[in-house]
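User: When convenient, might I ask for sequence and structure tokens for a protein?

AI:
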Amino acid sequence: MVNEPPFLETQRDNDLLFKELSHALARDEFFLVYQPTIDLQSNAFVGVEALIRWRTTNRGVVAPEMFISELERSGQICEVGKWALDTACQQGADWHARGYRFAVSVNNSVKQLESETFVEDVRGALRMTRFDPALLVLEFSQESLLRGGESTAITIEQLKALGIRIAVDDFTPGVSPLSTLQQIPIDIVKLDRNFINGISKSPQDVELVQSLVQLGKSLNLLIVASGIEDIDQRQRLQVKEIHLGQGFLFSAPREAEQIDQFLEDFAIFSGRPL
């Protein structure tokens, strides 16, 4: 038998994977992990970001970069996104019921933002779980927030009227104009992890951070650094008065049960209130 070219084998694997993906929600194969967010100035635990994963029967856990774009293409992203929001709010409400008070951030796609039911989906998740809207953060890419024009602005205002906060995800100073942040009624700016990775080597990047911090103060924005991996990065961001940070320096994404243990350990070793 003649072996197939590698690209055909890859295509066949992808086709099988995507076929499985169409049944993943019904089979309860998706799950969430949570990455802690830390106050860089006080070292307090202030929140988690919910991140979706897919646990398959034959392939183990599949990373989101392998399936999110297919969910977008197939139109499943709104249904799966609603599941993720409901699940994150329920988990957050469980933590809050046990006395932990911190924010939960949930990523959302442009298709969700453009959906006519999105605001009602968010309202329903809050009502169903009794999750405090002041502690819910919805994250969107900058492209998602800018491309919809007036209709997107109206949706964002409706979401903010529920009492939640809006974050721009993966923002890169120097690539994305700072002025665009003034066009969107947002509360939080998350710096892209690739930008943070280069901050130790580039004085220019440090100056861009300083400019963003100054703009953030003028607009009352909270600045979050994603992908902090070492002490040097943390110290540089701390000096520039970046508010919050995420990254493997603090913790990898963990399932909810592991976050429970992390919270106990963090309270013991940091001496900081949660």
